[in-house]
Amino acid sequence: MRRFLDWFFRSRETGAITIAQWPNLILWIVIVAGLLLWIWPSAGRASVVLTIAFKGGLMIWGADEIIRGVNPWRRCLGAAVVVYALTTLVP
């Protein structure tokens, strides 16, 4: 089990255990859009734009993690985020 966990969480780039990383630009956009949706929940055009930025950004970030994730954990996290974004597209 220890060997599996080491393989699953160890970064292929640095060799360090990597569970979370500092957000990149796309994830910062998702965070800001999500916060604005939470603070300002309206039914207008701004809400539509923020929702597109939030869910679109999540799908882009997830796809990026699937392709370029530093370990299997990050790739699985990206896949889970993409599945979440896709399943919540239709209200």
Describe, in plain words, how this protein is organized in 3D:
The protein is an all-alpha fold and 91 residues long. It contains four helices and no strands. It has helices at residues 2-9, 25-39, 45-68, 72-87. It is elongated, with a radius of gyration of 15 Å. The chain starts with a helix and ends with a helix. The mean pLDDT is 93.
Top keywords for this entry?
mainly alpha
Residue windows where pLDDT falls under 50 for at least 5 positions: none
Oligomer: single chain
The SS-based structural class is mainly alpha
Count of helical stretches: 4
**First-residue to last-residue Cα separation:** 40 Å
- Can you give the mean pLDDT? 93
Number of strands: 0
Largest sheet: none
Computed Rg = 15 Å
Provide the helix percentage.
55-70%
Please tell me what the overall shape is.
elongated
What string, H for helix and E for strand, traces the elements in order? HHHH
